[in-house]
Amino acid sequence: MATLADVARRAGVSPATASRIINGSPKPVTDALRERVLAAVEELQYVPNAHAQLLARSHRTAIGVIVHDVSDPYFAEITRGLQRVATAHGRLVIICNSYRDPVKELEYVELLRAHQVAAIVLAGSGYHDEEFTKALDGKLRVYESTGGRVAVIGRHEHAGDAVVPDNEMGGYLLASHLYELGHEQIGVIAGPKQLTTTTDRLAGLRRAAREYGRKLPASCVAYADFDRTSGADAAATLLDAEPSLTALAALNDSMAIGALSLLRSRGIAVPERVSVIGFDDMPIARDVTPALTTVRLPLVDMGARAMTLALEEPADRVAPRIEQVGAELVRRDSTGAPA
Predict the structure, then answer these.
(1) DSSP for residue 48
(2) Any idea where the HTH lacI-type domain is (predicted)?
(3) What sign has the CA pseudo-torsion 211, 189, 293, 185?
(4) Given CA atoms 150, 156, 161, 165 in this order, what sign does their dihedral have?
(5) What is the pLDDT of residues 30-84, one digit of tens each?
(6) What rounded mean pLDDT belongs to the chain?
(7) What is the value of pTM for the model shown?
């Protein structure tokens, strides 16, 4: 494997000069020297050291992204949008999975700061944890004071640039659809209690219940983990406790698909006996049987907009840039009028 010294020797320059040219240092060199060094790099198939390039350049190139779990279809779609914009700008994306561990998120912020990333994007939900949110906000402010940029997706306690999906309205649309179909006995499969996303979506359901004169008792809400398995388990818990339920409202599509699986295993027809509705409109939602009625969030666009905020120099450094993202109901085959 060729070394920097080999390149310098082939180009007839000092290793320091070769390093400045290869690593993009702002220090001036003649065009003739640059061409000789780059020709030697090509001829010897030399691979530059990324850390050396970072030290030599006057600007940071990598972007850190903290998600709960990139294997989750929700975060996979958001990451697609993030990477699309980053790639268009020639940026490397470093993805960190926190698995909803607040301590790990704090550690990742420190780690990304140590790697001198140009920006950090928090793509996961905020937490109902005052101690954690205060610590996270403090670390992000320190990072910003060194020239780093921060953008968040969702509702967080950090005053900065944000892409905020209207989760409350999405929950309202979800419940309103079921009430308009005539459902009165609805079971809700919610996400983790500590997440602001869960709170906001539930708030929308409860607003719809009030407006339609219906009740949404605590006994009809089961908390799960935003995944298929826990969605199926929550559906079983709700149906065993309240066999008269005519609809299951899951606060994300993965849990809704778990509910569909549970109903199929019990021989319960959807939507003839029980309607099922999800949230997010992940790609698989249209491919399950029956096709899943859901609330759509433009996940890829949300990721793209967050990365754009992270990369663009704000015109006003005082006022945070907040981009609101609307939700819309997508009617498919998994919901219908109660029998």
Answers:
(1) -
(2) 2-57
(3) negative
(4) positive
(5) 888 888 988 988 888 887 765 555 554 545 789 999 999 999 999 999 999 999 9
(6) 92
(7) 0.83
Q: What SS3 class is residue 241? A: helix
- The position carrying tokens 């390093």 is 19
Is the distance from CB of 321 to CB of 161 less than 8 angstroms? yes
Q: Give the range of the structural domain holding residue 216, as residue numbers without chain letter.
A: 167-297
Domain check: are 292 and 178 in the same one?
yes
Element (H, E) at 277: strand 275-277
Asked which of 25-29, 72-76, 90-94, 103-107 is least confident by mean pLDDT, the reply is 25-29
Q: Would residue 331 count as lying in a domain?
A: no
**Do 177 and 158 reside in the same domain of the chain?**
no
Task: Tell me, rounded to whole angstroms, the distance of Cα 223 from its chain centroid.
Answer: 20
DSSP per-residue string spanning 136-180: HHHHHHHHHHTT-EEEEES--S--SEEEEE-HHHHHHHHHHHHHH
Six-digit token string for 278: 């999800």
Are 93 and 161 contained in the same domain? Answer: yes
Measured distance CA(100)–CA(175) in Å, rounded: 27
- Distance, in Å, from the CA atom of 339 to the CA atom of 26, rounded to the nearest integer, reads 72
Which among 107, 276, 124, 248 has a CA at the least distance from the CA of 186? 248
Query: Are residues 278 and 317 both part of a single domain?
Result: no
